[in-house]
Amino acid sequence: MMTPDGTPPSGNRRWVVAVMAVLAATLLFGRGAVRAAIEEVAQFISLHGKPEPASANVLSEHETEGLDSMPPQGQAELLLERSINHFDGANDQIEARVGAWPGHIELTGRLNSLFMTAINSSDLRVRAAALEVDLAARNREVSAATMDRLEPEARSGEQASRVSALWDIAMLGNRGVEPQRAAQILLASIHDDNVEVRHWAVEGLAHLGTDETIEPLLQIFHDDPSPMIRERAACSLAQSGMLSESQRRTAVPRLLDYAEDASLDADTRTWVFQALRDITGKTLPHEAAAWRDWYGSSDRQWSPVTRDRL
Fold first, then answer.
1. What is the pLDDT of residues 180-211, one digit of tens each?
2. Angle between helices 266-280 and 214-223 (to 10 degrees)
3. Residue 177 above 80 pLDDT?
4. What is the CATH class of 144-296?
5. What DSSP string runs through 92-144?
6. Domain spans of the chain?
């Protein structure tokens, strides 16, 4: 394959150069040089296979010592970036410092980009770090008093303040502040006439991430009149939010029922099969029978979770 100017793509050029080096070494210097050239070719890192560590992934002493002299915004950016890359000690430092960040950091620029990456990580601990940073950036103390203040807004405030409160309450619940109470506040809004309120109630349930959120998300996926909200419920069950892999698996039997449900429109049934694939790691045709056969087979296996790669 060639680029528009007639040259090989950069990745291919490296291999062409390497192969030429092997041939030249063969002609000029014999087998020893060939062996050295082959070893040089082998040093190119493939895009496939298991993760290849670049370092020991430990927060360096230099970085740790320098944190105290950095402004809170810089601390949050550095530590969340290190958390995303699974550096040992990064989440410990976030936990130790996040209490001093409210009112001193903003979820803008680089920190917002890092938050978006972290909240979509395949590692729930990285997602949890993202929630901690988001709460601090939104100046939300992680306490029952904050829940007390937000509940009236979540239940009956104006749209903008209501959806904001629903999100904050979900994050508080996930971080251990009265999760059952948080669930009840969120569930009170899943049938609201306002589409945006329902949308953020769904996002809230996904990020609360408790066992009791799975059944409501399944019902919303099946029954909500808004395609956008049905899709968000499907994503919440499949990948987004704070549900664990094992929690998501409990939704599979109901999703298999949905795959056979002729009352669902074509888009929703497509989302059913996409959710099944995301949860199980299994690639099968968009056919209910194929998924039933696999799920009922004696050799059924779940694909292992894949972690973020550097």
1. 999 999 999 999 999 999 999 999 999 999 99
2. 150
3. yes
4. mainly alpha
5. HHHHHHGGG-TTT--S-HHHHHHHHHHHT-S-HHHHHHHHHHHHHHTT--SSH
6. 10-42, 72-137, 144-296
